[in-house]
Amino acid sequence: MTSAKVTDENATGAPEEGYERGLGSRQVQMIAIGGAIGVGLFMGAGANIAKAGPSIILMYALAGVVIFFIMRALGELLLYRPVSGSFAEYAREFLGPFFGFVTGWTYWLMWVVTGMAELTAAAIYIHFWFPEIPQWVSALVFLVVLFGVNLISVKIFGEVEFWFSMIKVTAIIGMIVIGLGVLTLGFSDAGDTATVSNLWSHDGFFPNGIGSSLMTLQGVMFAYLAVELVGVTAGESENPEKTLPKAINTLPWRIIVFYVGALLVILSVVKWTEFSAGESPFVHAFGKIGIPLAAGIVNFVVLTAALSSCNSGMYSTGRMLRDLAANSEAPQAFGKLNSRKTPAVGITVSVALMGIGVVLNYVVPEKAFLYVTSVATAAGIWTWMMILVSHIRYRAAVDAGRLRASSFPAPGGALFSWVALIFLIGVTFMIAYDKDARVCLYVAAGWAVALGLGWAFLKRRNPQIAARGGDEPELEKVG
């Protein structure tokens, strides 16, 4: 299969797609780090702790191992052919144009609904300081501001994301240090009850049973959405051969520190029974410690985490729509770049649809977060599955001598991709079993029908698309 026509190649042999290669090494690194720290950890962890107790630590660790398998599979593909429409492009090449079409549009959907979730979370965090401001008003303000950031240039996006991620990283490390201080020195209001035994002394490590713990995996997987965003940056990275492997290989320590380490400390300082859904466990824990302004500072940090993820969502939706347009799978207007080399039309349409999240915050503020996170998780799982299946097909082609080997091979070859794929299928069954999360499968069914109709329309309009993946139009650059 072939992808969109390109005009040039960079020094590494990667195709140029008209974008500005404005993302430096430090920005790609922080985007990768920030992708592993989002609202799924800061806010979603509260509901997961309430369901699983201390065993939630094990669930985050288990999911983290699978995510690393997925990212190494993606890394091998990225160094084989680094392009901005990575997931859709690989599905198109190794599985056929229909799967590229479905993957591109589904990843776009994931980020649109994730943007809704992040706007919802940000509006909830604003309530911490200004309870009189309606959720929908805060969500709308944030939507407009981040929209402006993404229209200016990729350099501005990268710089904003760099500082958002820096705040998150610094804050979590600070939280861990303070928590360890409470545990070892016994200072603060929580000092008398803070102890590592909190991990097992309140009805055990699995207080609600192993089954309840496993059922949190679908919520846990949402926390890892966006780790694959580093793949979307491939077409705008200054040196993808160097920056992408480094960003992916640092994933294990990010998971150990930011997820396992942070939750170990938090659940040792405060017993798990005090946490609940709808509240950030980090805000609650530092409120319990009683450090002046600590809860407010943590609330600011989780606010930046939500805005960071929404910012990334706007970035990726525009790029994915452009890839679809380049393969005649979306309106050609989405393939245009403005004078600042950003896909302004695609970003604008995506942001307009993210505005549905503002409406949800007005109509059902108490359920908005649950609805959009479950849909985003289902879309994310599909994207990860396509990465894994594409990697399996790629390795088979390399082994048969049909394609060149990547300079960044995944350990274990296709074996770990099979393991991760089976795990994701299991999580999908768990989603179907969970009555609260099951709503996303109804949405997925409707989305599948819409995609099927869209593909049938495209084939009727252009019969060659099913065989070649599109007419391969030149990507336009307009003022």
UniProtKB/TrEMBL annotation:
TM regions (residue ranges): 30-50, 56-74, 108-130, 136-157, 169-188, 208-230, 251-269, 289-310, 344-363, 369-392, 413-433, 439-458
Region described as Disordered: spans on this chain: 1-21
Membrane topology: Multi-pass membrane protein
Keyword Translocase annotated: no
Subcellular location: Cell membrane
Record key words, sorted: Amino-acid transport, Cell membrane, Membrane, Transmembrane, Transmembrane helix, Transport
GO biological process: amino acid transport; transmembrane transport
Pfam families: AA_permease
Stated family: Belongs to the amino acid-polyamine-organocation (APC) superfamily. Amino acid transporter (AAT) (TC 2.A.3.1) family.
Protein name (record): Amino acid permease
